Amino acid sequence: MTIILKSSRMLSTILFRCNYSTAPKSVSTMLINNKEFETDEYTNITPKIISYLNQNLHLRKDNPISLVRKSIVNYFYKSFTSRGNPSFSVYENLSPIVTTKQNFDDLLIPKDHISRSKSDCYYINKDVLLRAHMTAHQGDLLRAGLDNFLMIGDVYRRDEIDATHFPVFHQVDAVRTQRKKDLFGENSELEIFEPTFDPIHPQRYTNSIADPMKQSCHTLEATKLMETQLKQHLIGLVQTLFGDDIQHRWVEAYFPFTHPSWELEIFYEDNWLEVLGCGITRNEILANAGPNNSIAYAFGLGLERLAMALYKIPDIRLMWSSDSGFISQFQNKTNYDTITYKPVSVYPQCVNDISFWLPPNLTIDSFTSNDFYDLVRDIGGDIIEQVKLKDKFVHPKSKKHSLCYTIIYRHLERTLTQREVNEFVRLL
């Protein structure tokens, strides 16, 4: 079924809700988590996204995300101890509302980096947003004097809509710092830093990452020893989750906040699956946050991706399901149990195509699909299974631009009727 939006009312609704209205915005405020924020031209957070705040799936006893979280925390508790106590501290209730300084500047993310764009992030205003990664808290925890810690929580990114993508997902990020004696021992002549680097005045040194082997401030010995520890620890983690025989490989990567950097992939069910990113923390981050005599490694992984692979969960939306048929499969289970999800029922899809003309100031190439995805998700909620760009069209005479999207609807707990779907389209 194809629906073509021709009326100016419906088109203006789409354009306004996608933040393309040309009318000047008046100063207004938004209440989130009992705190009032001013809105501005950057504001693109929607009521639907706000409704996901404080759900804390990673802490829900009978949620698969929580089971994976427990496995990871237990691994680090058991693997790293000091005088019988866990070396890693765990932070699971950090506020998802952060500043652009925390989310970007503290992590050396360039001003023109694509990850800062409105099409990628949920901004409350130009200075405040919902965190796009748990690493946003790294600088604050380092400034508090912490050296080894796990940060666990929900993160928010504007993305496509399909079975493996959702605007909210959960991450575990970690940092482990070591001083000279921790890394080399009490009496070693080896050093963390090159002789040309002055750790007392790190701002006087321009730290280069031109060498793919290491940062210019670090010695090769320190970098290689940290790399070895990092990779051994993370291989141990995936073996804990997927079994000792799991095949793995390291892929060189780039992240603004680590160098050198890698991604870890595992060969799982006949496919290579990326499970995490990691690297040696950029020394500028440590120096700006306080530690000037240490080297650190960091890593981050997504809990949904691991849970879907481990428990054979086919649709990421199921993580948010309140259906007893889903919840009961994880009820009273531990992270040591072998669980394979069994579909409660497979309800049929409803599929519609929807097309609309763009205003003169937009083209089929400049229109941001993530804006349309947010509009669809905001109105349709979790019955939206997938949205795909189907066609682009430029009228040969009028030169007007048009887009057509396919919207796939499926309720996880009952059969949808075409009448319900048509009502959703009417609301657009």
Set down the secondary structure blueprint.
Elements: E1 2-5, H1 8-17, E2 29-32, E3 35-38, H2 47-50, H3 64-79, E4 81-82, E5 85-86, E6 89-91, E7 97-99, H4 100-103, E8 123-125, E9 128-130, H5 138-143, E10 148-156, E11 168-179, H6 180-184, H7 220-242, E12 247-255, E13 258-268, E14 271-281, H8 283-289, E15 294-302, H9 303-311, H10 324-327, E16 350-357, H11 369-380, E17 384-394, E18 401-409, H12 418-427
Parallel strand pairs: 1-16, 6-10
Antiparallel strand pairs: 2-3, 4-5, 7-9, 8-9, 10-11, 11-15, 12-13, 13-14, 14-15, 16-18, 17-18
Helix pairs in contact: 3-7, 3-9
Explain this structure to me?
The protein is α+β, with helices and mostly antiparallel strands and 428 residues long. Helix content is 26%, strand content 27%. It is built from twelve helices and 18 strands. The chain has a seven-stranded mixed β-sheet. Helix 3 (64-79) crosses helix 9 (303-311). The chain is globular and about 75 Å long.
What percent of the residues sit in helical stretches (DSSP H or I)? 25-40%
> What percent strand?
25-35%
Span between termini:
16 Å
Outline, from the CA principal axes?
globular
Average the pLDDT over all residues and give the rounded result: 90
Number of beta strands: 18
Strand order of the largest sheet: 6-10-11-15-14-13-12
- Rounded to the nearest angstrom, the radius of gyration is 24 Å
State the gist of this model:
The chain is α+β, with helices and mostly antiparallel strands and 428 residues long.
What features would you highlight for this structure?
single chain, 428 residues, alpha+beta, 26% helix, seven-stranded mixed sheet, disordered N terminus, four-stranded mixed sheet, globular
